[in-house]
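ok so dumb question maybe but i'm new to this and my supervisor (M.) told me to 'just get the structure for Gpr107 protein' and walked off. so i did the thing. is this what she meant?? sequence i used:
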Amino acid sequence: MRTKLRWLDYRIVATTGIESSVVDITWKLLSKVQNILELMSFLLLSLGWKVLRSSLDVSEIRFAVAVSIISFYLGVFQVACTTPATCSGYQLSRYILHSLCFLVIIVAMNFNLQKLASAISDAPASLESGKLYRKLTAYYIFRWVFLGFIIAPTVELFLKVTVVPWDAQWLYIAIQELRTWAPRHARQDAARQRALSGPQPLSQHPSKLDGSGRSGWTASMSRLVHGATTVVFRTTQDLEKDEFLLMLRMVCPELWKGNVLPYDFVYLQCPRVMIVNFISHDLCLNCFTSVHNQIRDSRGHIGKVQQARYQGLAENLGAFYAKAGRRGLESATAPTVFQGWRQIPLRLAVQSFVPPEMLERLRVDVRRAKDSRQAAAAQRPSPPATGASQSRPGRQQSSAAQSAPIAVAAPTIPSPSPAAQWQARRPVVDGTQVGASATGDAPGMWTAGDERQQPPLRPGPPRWQFHLGEGPGLPQPCGYSQASASSHMAPVATQPGIPLSISGMVVTERNGVLFFDL
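this is what came out, is it supposed to look like this??
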């Protein structure tokens, strides 16, 4: 409307030679109103109105209304002024007011960008996180648009002063009109083209990168070998397979615009490492570029993206089968294979997609990698043993002693002089030879049920008298004395080591410890 009125005013002047005051004032006032509306749209978007929140604070509303009224007031006086000095004063005041508003827009926009980035880093993988990703991307685009909006008047003034001559002022006016008209129509045209032609071919992506060579298990993070279809994603937090796929769909929504699932192999190697094989190099490149740009901007939960060592569905599936075997195909952590939108069993996938010669080659690679790791581990020096892990020679136990059911701590009083070890005596009970019920396994440890040689007896505390009960046929034990009917214990000085047989039970005393063998 403003452009039409301005063109009409110029046509009237060119035809009649007389300037129409009504038309001239009208298009100038509409120009001031348009500037105010553009300024308010930038201000409201930077404050997050209808994007991050549904309403504004009272102070924000008052600030927007005050700027609009003052700017319109100054614009009206600028249009109605009659002297150049007065018009310049009103114009300068209006520029200062708009500059103050520009400063508020920059501060509010950066604050909302930081707020969105913090919310994304703390949010789990969900639909709400996807909305935050889209809003953050929109705010980054909005920042560049606002930068162009601020710089454009300076560029136009520079062209008017240095490039455009005085008799070609129409060129300056055409540039001004093009600046306000072209972006709006470009956005409408782009939306119309996307609706008619569908997604843009990924092979024409402007950020396509070609490289060659691989180093180790992965390629460079910022490059992707031509023809590669498999990439490795490393996240900053533990995620399930479904959560990661949902987050990947939010980061790269253009991959799902068609009616085809963009990947056919998904393997969650650990809670923070995901291997994905895409059905084409173009899809892989598009996702790789989008995720890499997000990582560069420090956004999202993906911390690293790299080219995988194995490329293609057959190699990845064969590598997993060569490492995990048949049992690995039944595990809960096994990869998922898709054919279209349908998930297929892993056994059928191995039989259908992995050739036998490829599987044999992958098995050889797995064995070589395992042998190299074992050789490297063997060459590393073992850490020195600590005091808790060092074992004394006397504590070495045989398999029979380690499986013994009873272990009793013995006194740790050192022997005054070394003596030869001796074999435990086998007492005879009711005409049957009975094995020794207790032997010394090591100094400080006694084990029942072992018939190995014992260390020499060591002096201990005084022997104690033990009440076994009274009755006919009970022999007097050697090393113990028959006591009265009352149960008590008293020190005696007898020769220890001779077992006592009582009704099929053998009682043996060694170094102050009683051992009962039924």
